[in-house]
Design goal:
Number of domains: 2
Oligomer: single chain
Number of helices: 13
Shape: globular
Helix content: 40-55%
CATH class of the largest domain: Alpha Beta
Structural class: alpha/beta
Distance between the termini: 47 Å
Strand order of the largest sheet: 1-2-10-7-8-9
Largest sheet: 6 strands, mixed
CATH architecture of the largest domain: 3-Layer(aba) Sandwich
Radius of gyration: 18 Å
Length: about 325
C-alpha cells in the first residue's frame, strides 16, 4: 500500500475543509527528557478530534460519485459528530445510529451538525450490528470509524502535517483503539522515516488491539470503564488495521486510569490544553517511557479534546 502518495493526495483533497492543527513545543515535557517534545493538537480540529479528517476523506469520496449513496454509521462519540459535519458540508444524505441509552449531550452534539439520528438497541455493539444490517439491506454506504482505507488515509494526514513541520522525529506516541489513527500516521511516517519509533498506547481497562497483536489474531476482550472512552471497545473482525498495527507499531504501552488522569491534568496544568481521555493516555504513555527518550525529538498526538464537565469534576476532585 502506497501510504505516502495516498495520504498526500488525501491531504490536498480535504485541506479546504479541515484545520491544519498546531504542532506545539512543550517546554515542560521537553525538560523531562533533555530533548524536544511536541504536541500535535488535534483537539483544535473541527468537531474537537482527528476523526473529522477520516470522515471528510470518506464522505468526500462518496460525494464525488454520480449518484452518491446514503451514508449510515453508528457512533455516540467523535466519529458520529465528525460524520455529521462532513455529511452536512458535502450535502450527503445519511443517518447516524445511537443506542437508546446514549448520553443526551453526545446525541446533541451529533445533531448540532445536522445529521439524522436514529435510535436502536441498548449498547454500541447491538446498534452497530443493526446499522450494518440496514446498510446491507438497502445498499447504503456504511462508514466504519477505522476499518476503511479512506478513513485511514484521512487520519494519516495528521502524520503528513507533522512531517512537514519537523525535520527530525525520533519517536511518536499515539493512542490506539481500533487502530485507524496509528495505521495512517504510522504508515505515512514509516514510509519516509523508517527508523522512527512508534509507540501505541492503550488503557489497561480496554486494550483489545494490544491483546490481539499479542495473540496473533483479533481477540474478543471484555472492556472495563475507562477515562479513555475514545479508544474503548472491540476491534471489528477482519479489520485491515490489525495487520497495519502489527507492522507499524514498534512497542505497545498500556496505562492505568490513574496514569491517564495524570496525563489529562498535565495538559491542563502545564500546557493550558483541554484534552479527552484518549489524548491523556498518549501523554501517559510518554511519561511512562520518558527515561528511555533522553535527548530525543518526540511527538505526542493529542487526538481530541471532547471531555465532559462531569469527567473533569471527577478527575479534579
Amino acid at each position: 500500500m502506497e501510504f505516502e502518495k495516498n495520504i498526500k493526495n488525501t491531504a490536498e483533497r480535504i485541506a479546504r475543509f479541515t484545520i491544519r492543527t498546531p504542532l506545539q513545543h512543550s517546554p515542560y515535557l521537553s525538560k523531562m527528557i533533555d530533548g524536544n517534545v511536541y504536541l500535535k493538537l488535534e483537539n483544535t480540529q473541527k468537531t474537537g478530534s482527528f476523526k473529522f479528517r477520516g470522515a471528510m476523506s470518506k464522505i468526500s469520496s462518496i460525494a464525488k460519485s454520480k449518484n452518491p449513496k446514503k451514508v449510515i454509521t453508528a457512533s455516540t462519540g467523535n466519529h458520529g459528530a465528525a460524520c455529521s459535519l462532513a455529511m452536512s458540508l458535502k450535502g450527503v444524505d445519511g443517518s447516524i445510529y445511537v443506542p437508546k441509552n446514549a448520553h443526551q449531550n453526545k446525541i446533541d452534539k451529533i445533531k448540532l451538525y445536522g445529521a439524522d439520528v436514529k435510535y436502536y438497541g441498548n449498547d454500541c455493539v447491538e446498534t452497530e450490528m443493526h446499522a450494518k444490517t440496514i446498510s446491507n439491506q438497502h445498499g447504503f454506504s456504511y462508514i466504519s470509524p477505522y476499518n476503511d482505507m479512506d478513513i485511514i488515509f484521512g487520519q494519516g494526514t495528521v502524520g503528513y502535517e507533522i512531517e512537514q513541520d519537523l525535520d527530525i522525529i525520533d519517536a511518536i506516541f499515539i493512542s490506539v483503539g481500533g487502530g485507524g489513527l496509528i495505521s495512517g500516521v504510522g504508515g505515512y511516517l514509516k514510509s519516509l522515516k523508517g527508523d522512527i519509533n512508534i509507540f501505541g498506547v492503550s488503557p489497561i481497562n480496554s486494550c483489545v488491539m494490544h491483546e490481539s497483536i499479542k495473540n496473533g489474531q483479533i481477540t474478543e476482550l471484555q472492556s472495563k470503564p475507562t477515562l479513555s472512552d475514545g479508544t474503548a471497545g472491540g476491534v471489528e473482525s477482519g479489520s485491515i488495521t490489525f495487520d497495519y498495527c502489527n507492522e507499524f507499531i514498534d512497542e505497545f504501552i498500556t496505562v492505568t486510569e490513574e496514569e491517564i488522569k495524570t496525563g489529562i491534568l498535565t495538559c491542563i496544568d502545564f500546557e493550558h490544553c483541554l484534552v479527552e481521555g484518549a489524548a491523556g493516555a498518549a501523554v501517559a504513555g510518554f511519561l511512562k517511557k520518558k527515561e528511555h527518550l533522553k535527548g530525543m525529538d518526540v511527538v505526542i498526538v493529542i487526538c481530541g479534546g471532547n471531555v465532559s464537565s462531569t469527567i473533569l469534576k471527577q478527575i479534579t476532585a
